[in-house]
UniProtKB/TrEMBL annotation:
Its main location: plastid. Pathway: Lipid metabolism; fatty acid biosynthesis. PANTHER family: ACYL CARRIER PROTEIN, ACYL CARRIER PROTEIN 5, CHLOROPLASTIC. Carrier of the growing fatty acid chain in fatty acid biosynthesis. It comes from Brassica campestris. It is found in: Plastid, Chloroplast. This is Acyl carrier protein. Residues 61-136 form the Carrier domain. Keywords: Chloroplast, Fatty acid biosynthesis, Fatty acid metabolism, Lipid biosynthesis, Lipid metabolism, Phosphopantetheine, Phosphoprotein, Plastid, Transit peptide. GO terms for cellular component: chloroplast. PROSITE patterns: CARRIER, PHOSPHOPANTETHEINE. InterPro entries: ACP, ACP-like_sf, ACP_chloroplastic, PKS_PP-bd, PP-bd_ACP, Ppantetheine_attach_site.
């Protein structure tokens, strides 16, 4: 089964510590992801790719917000504590037990079950939201 979508990618290449350039481009043609138990995304670019390239697929903002709230609740953070998609659990003082409790809270809230090895990989709110949406999609397929 293939899913088609269009997306944009932003790249930032550091020339030195003092300067950085950002290149943004959007693929107008749909790209395909083939689901065979894994998600594969490939594309080609005519320009050299910087040594450090990060690709992030957008997840629903409401998923990120729910994950952020669960993280704040599990870690007993103040209401005004800012937790964004890029926030790392370790930045909030979470240890491995806290991470397990966060995963349990996410499973309960979203009605999903995460494999232990996948749950161990979660380090940011964004990564948790991406995994949740992937598991929800698999559940409904």
């Amino acid at each position: 089964m293939a899913t088609s979508f269009s997306f944009s990618i932003s790249m930032q290449a550091r020339v030195s510590d003092l300067s950085a350039t950002t290149t943004r481009f959007c693929l107008q043609k749909p790209a395909s992801i083939f689901h065979n138990g894994k998600t594969n995304l490939s594309f080609s670019q005519r320009h050299p790719i910087p040594a450090r390239l990060a690709i992030s697929c957008a997840v629903k903002q409401e998923t990120v917000e729910k994950v952020s709230e669960i993280v704040k609740k599990q870690l007993s953070l103040a209401e005004d504590q800012k937790v964004t998609a890029r926030t790392k659990f370790t930045e909030l003082g979470a240890d491995s037990l806290d991470t397990v409790e966060i995963v349990m809270g996410l499973e309960e809230e979203f009605g999903i079950t995460m494999a232990e090895e996948r749950a161990k990989e979660i380090a940011t709110v964004q990564h948790a939201a991406e995994l949740i949406e992937e598991l929800i999609q698999q559940k409904t397929a």
